[in-house]
Amino acid sequence: MEKVAVLGAGSWGTALAMVLADNDHDVRLWTHKQDHANEMNQRRQNEKYLPGVHLPEKIVAYYQLDEAVKDVSTVLVVVPTKAIREVCSSLNKVLDHKVTMIHGTKGIEPGTLKRVSEMMAEELSNDLYNKIVVLSGPSHAEEVSQRHPTTVTASSTNLKEAEKVQDLFINENFRVYTSPDMIGVELGGALKNIIALGAGISDGLGYGDNAKAALMTRGLAEIARLGSSMGANPLTFIGLSGVGDLIVTCTSIHSRNWKAGNLLGKGHDLAEVLDKMGMVVEGVRTTRAAYELSRKQNIEMPITQGLYQILFEDEKPKAVVDQLMTRLRRHEMEDLSSILSNRYSTQSE
Ligand SMILES: NC(=O)C1=CN([C@@H]2O[C@H](COP(=O)(O)OP(=O)(O)OC[C@H]3O[C@@H](n4cnc5c(N)ncnc54)[C@H](O)[C@@H]3O)[C@@H](O)[C@H]2O)C=CC1
Ligand SMILES: O=C(CO)COP(=O)(O)O
């Protein structure tokens, strides 16, 4: 059995800590708020982020980061993208040995346009881990904590590290696949949040399933277009961290991105929506990052561009729908053939 530190006690960190505890590992769940750690240890609940769920005894909450990571074999970082650099830079100061380094965060950093593993690598000395592993896929914390069947992908440029993570998490409720395409897995998990905001807006405007299916399908086309231009294997986007996560986030009642979009579609403004949510809505910052990336890579992303206009340029959702529906006529598979003819690599190290 391993000693694992989970850094970030939001809904996802807590649900993943429960999977590890079910697999009999000793889990230290770190939060940066002392009263939050006390509450979890005393009441065996994480009331704000995963209400009504009993925390197994194998999970102990920590407030001091140095104590949380002392002697652990594995560190799982699962804070919002915005907090990745701060948490990893603190981790770099207190971690004094090599660990298996994992993250479960879905985002891209605006400005630098870096993926989460790239941000982590910039903050952590490379003698603290071999290769970073990302764990991603269609997996709402609420359902994982109920032990409902869930499938995810562990991906790393070093497949052996990914297999270690597969061993650590896999059980009869939580099935873990591996993939060497870390770029594709991270981008799929981050970019689907933009489309989920769009799906929520569409529902909020009162449109039906046709509109949502259109957004998801054409959304996937733009994810694959951008992803393959950045070196991802396009086939990754028809896997769990691509279409799988796109489906769950655009259709689940648990999705924060869908919920935020739904409120926007009903006419609420962004500041009010984010205030109401109380949990991270990664799609907002990722829309900014993806919009910047699409310009940098010269990739057409009309849905992302429309979302950017709604979120940051005060455009009305209905005007963006009109804009999308009246674009120049296209061949449906124009995208697909160019993506598949791009060269890409599926090789692990
Ligand atoms: N909730 C879910 O079902 C899933 C979430 N994810 C991803 O996991 C990541 C984390 O999401 P959630 O746990 O859902 O978020 P959340 O909003 O439920 O919780 C975020 C946690 O991070 C902590 N935090 C925020 N800033 C911090 C800082 N500077 N230092 C330390 N801790 C800080 C908060 O106190 C809170 O405990 C996101 O990237 C999300 O997209 C991925 C899969 C499923
Ligand atoms: O990534 C997720 C499910 O796989 C969680 O999505 P939300 O952040 O929209 O809830």
TrEMBL record:
InterPro entries: 6-PGluconate_DH-like_C_sf, 6PGD_dom2, G3P_DH_NAD-dep, G3P_DH_NAD-dep_C, G3P_DH_NAD-dep_N, NAD(P)-bd_dom_sf. Residues 181-321 form the Glycerol-3-phosphate dehydrogenase NAD-dependent C-terminal domain. Keywords: Cytoplasm, Lipid biosynthesis, Lipid metabolism, NAD, NADP, Nucleotide-binding, Oxidoreductase, Phospholipid biosynthesis, Phospholipid metabolism. Pfam families: NAD_Gly3P_dh_C, NAD_Gly3P_dh_N. The keyword Transferase does not apply. Its EC number is 1.1.1.94. NADPH binds at S11, W12, H32, K33, Y49, K106, A141, R256, V280, E282. One of its GO terms (cellular component) is cytosol. The keyword Lipid biosynthesis applies. Pathway: Membrane lipid metabolism; glycerophospholipid metabolism. Gene3D superfamilies: N-(1-d-carboxylethyl)-l-norvaline Dehydrogenase, domain 2, NAD(P)-binding Rossmann-like Domain. Its main location: cytoplasm. GO terms for biological process: carbohydrate metabolic process; glycerol-3-phosphate biosynthetic process; glycerol-3-phosphate catabolic process; glycerophospholipid metabolic process; phospholipid biosynthetic process. SUPFAM superfamilies: 6-phosphogluconate dehydrogenase C-terminal domain-like (SSF48179), NAD(P)-binding Rossmann-fold domains (SSF51735). Catalyzes the reduction of the glycolytic intermediate dihydroxyacetone phosphate (DHAP) to sn-glycerol 3-phosphate (G3P), the key precursor for phospholipid synthesis. This is Glycerol-3-phosphate dehydrogenase [NAD(P)+]. The gene is gpsA.
